Every structure is written in structure tokens, then in C-alpha cells.
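User: Could you check the structure of this?
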Amino acid sequence: MPPSLTFTAFVWKNLRRRRLRTFLTLCGIGMAVGAFVGLVGFSRAFEQQWLRIYSSSGIDITVIRGTFVNTSLDQSAAAKIRQLPDVAQAAPMIFNVMDITPEVTALVYGWEANSFEFNSLKILSGQRFQDSQPEVMLGDLLAQDLNKKPGDTLEIQGTQFKVTAVYHGASSLEADALIMPLDQLQQLTSLQGKASTVHVRLRPAPRGISWDRYMKQAEQQIEAAVPGLRAEPATERATDNQIVKMAHASAWGTSALAIIIGILGIANTMVMSVHERTQEIGILRAMGWKRWQVLALIQFEAAMLGLAGGLVGIVVGWCALRVLSALPQTASIISSTVSWPLLVEAMVVALLAGLIAGAFPAWYAGRLSPMEALRHD
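Assistant: Sure, the predicted C-alpha cells are below.
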């Protein structure tokens, strides 16, 4: 019998032999891969929203504290950075997550009234706030949730603020946020004279100098001008901030637990299959099958279960993203589109899960001697 036919026939026969068990195993690994697609897809969409903030605002470099012991920096560093020849604009800012009402928590940005970052916002109604005034601007999504408009007041941590404008941002992390004068947020957070970061926009690169080289040169100038601070490209900062890291860690951690459960499900199915087919394996060995052929057969069956579960999981994950993209709370962040890299990663994870799950059953089946297997009851 041709080897390809032998493998295909035995794999198909075994998967059909216990259809309910196979179905439940596919559901288990499918849910695990679906959790991977949904959670990792969510975290990457969240990261893209941060990238959009920097790209739409024209931020080239972010300046942050060089150590993790103290993450705030002196606001005065922005004035020193502005004096550098390659720097066009530098804007200190603070961002924080705050309870706006008992039911609503939102990102809060503290900007100076003349910050260049306002250029990326479209003011739908009202006007820009003034420095040193208890005033705020609301993103259109947050304004809708709070049912607020220009002229209304909003109490934040015991302080009354006047809503001066409703704006639309290029990123949902701005559209669903609140912006107030930097000095006002400094008072609320007890960070007088401090900033979370300084956003820098560079001048056009001189002729004959590549943008990457020009960026590196500007970063070195900034770090020399303000010792103890670190300058890095805005795109790197978008993927390296603590909020994005927490989103990625939560997604991968939860997905890993789900995948482990899926692996145990496939392993249980394959162990039971090997136990039920011990005599069959003995016959194959007596017919001349080598140990590695038996091992390959079991591994192939486990891999097929993993891949089939991966296809089910992609559908489950896509449906989960569709639901999240339709919910008001997450519609502005999540897209129902699943990227090709994520699809490939999901199938690789599913295949590896199958191979890992089948490793012990395959090893056990491969070490069975023909006589021992034939005498098995």
C-alpha cells in the first residue's frame, strides 16, 4: 500500500471513529485559538491607535525620563530642547487615566494652549482653552457619553471645569479623551512643574542627509542638551509605552492559558486514541512499520486536529472582533478585519499546539513492541 495512502487512510479513519470526541476536541482548540485571535487582534488595534496619535500630530521624537525610578521630567526641559537647531517645536505634556464620573473613566491629556498637537484636531464646536484656566476640551465620543457641550461644566476630582470645545481626533484614544491645560492637570496630579514627556517636531532634513540619520543626530543633540532624559522615535514610543505593553501582556497571557487548555484537550484525545488502537498499532508494526512511522502517524493526526481547530478558531476570533467592533464601548478602537500576519500566527500556534499535544502519545505508541501491542486487551 502506498505510504501516502496509508497515512491518509489511517488518519481519516481515526478522526471519524470517535466523531463526538473529535468534535469536542476541535471546539476546545478552536476556542483557544479564537481567544488568541480576538485578544491579540484587540491589543494590536489598540497599538495602532497610539501610532495614529503620533503620526497625525506630526510628532517625530518623544523625550522621556531615562530611568524607570521616576517617570516624570522637568517641564523646563522643553525650553532647552526648543533651542536646538534641528528642533522646530517641542511640547511638554502629561497623560493620565482618570475617573471623569463614577461610570466613565477616560484618558486625560494635559497640553499647553499653544501646543502644535492641536493642529491634528478638528474642533467641532466651541474654541480652544486658555492656559491657567479651569477649562477642558472633550473628544466627540466622550462628549456623547457624558452628554456635554461647550458652555457646560464638568467636575473632576472636586474641581469644576468649563467645557470650551468638542473636537474630533484622528485616533479614538483622542476622540474618547479629555484635554485640559497642562498646569491644571499638574495641579490635579500634584506634578507641578513636571511633564510625562516632551513631544518634538523636527525641521525638514537638509539635502543629502537621510531621514534616519537626521533623526539619530537630533536624538543625540537632545540627550546632550538635557542629561538624564532619553530621546526616541515616536513610532517606537507608541509601541513601548506602559499602556500598550499591558494590553499586549494581558492578551498573550490570557491566550497562553487558553492554548494550554486546548493542548491538554488534544493530548487527552490522542492518548485515548493510542490506548484504543494498541492492537492496530501492533498489526502495523508486525506488517513492517518502523517506530518513526508510527510516531509520525500519531503526530500527523494531532497536527491535523490542531490545524482544523485553528481554522475554527479564526472564525471564532473574527466573530468576536465583529461583536467588539459593534459595541459602543469598543467600536472606535476595534476593527473587524483580521490581518494576514495574525492569521498566519494563529495557524502556526494551532499547528504547534497539535504537535506539542501529540508528542507524548506519539512517543508512547512508537515504543510499543509488536508482541506487546498484539497481546493488549
